[in-house]
Design goal:
Elements lengths: L21 H20 L2 H20 L1 E2 L2 E2 H13 L11 H4 L1 H14 L2 H14 L14 E5 L5 E5 L4
Antiparallel strand pairs: 1-2, 3-4
Length: about 160
């Protein structure tokens, strides 16, 4: 079997101009050119103030990374997020795949075996927190189902048939 050499560090961009990538160099050079042009437009005090701000912006665009992404990429993603309309879609996961039917049966068994004191505590907790209690006192039999959020959190929700 022949062996092949696997390239290393394929995630990194090549350093073309000293320790800078080409994009970083253009951000720094653009800021420097803008500062040079402003030297002839503004008086000394305004030039110092504006050049400090532009140097900070140019340095941030060249070197700041947020969660492994460059600052221009994060700014572009934020702009796109606020500009585009958002569409939320929900697809019901099958209860058989996730074991949801078993969990609902388990919760029903706990609910049936609960004493009157536990039922009263559950109702009081529901009133205090403004949440629907898991244990209902008397009345019709309600259907519950386990809902799994994208974060992996599972909650019990009342199933409503329309």
């Amino acid at each position: 079997m022949s062996t092949f050499q696997v390239p290393q560090f394929i995630e990194e961009k090549p350093k073309i101009i000293g320790p800078l990538t080409l994009v970083q160099f253009f951000y720094i050079a653009g800021a420097a050119a803008l500062i040079l042009i402003m030297r002839y437009v503004f008086n000394f005090f305004l030039w110092i103030v504006f050049s400090a701000a532009i140097a900070a912006i140019g340095g941030a665009l060249a070197f700041v990374k947020i969660n492994g992404q460059t600052l221009p990429g994060v700014a572009f993603s934020a702009f796109r997020y606020f500009w585009r309309p958002r569409t939320y879609t929900w697809q019901m996961a099958s209860a058989a795949k996730k074991g949801g039917a078993y969990e609902v049966e388990k919760i029903e068994a706990i609910r049936k075996s609960a004493g009157l004191g536990e039922k009263i505590k559950s109702l009081a907790l529901g009133v205090l927190t403004r949440k629907t209690p898991l244990i209902r006192v008397g009345g019709e039999k309600e259907k519950y189902q386990v809902v799994t959020f994208m974060s992996g959190e599972k909650r019990l929700a009342r199933k409503v048939d329309y």
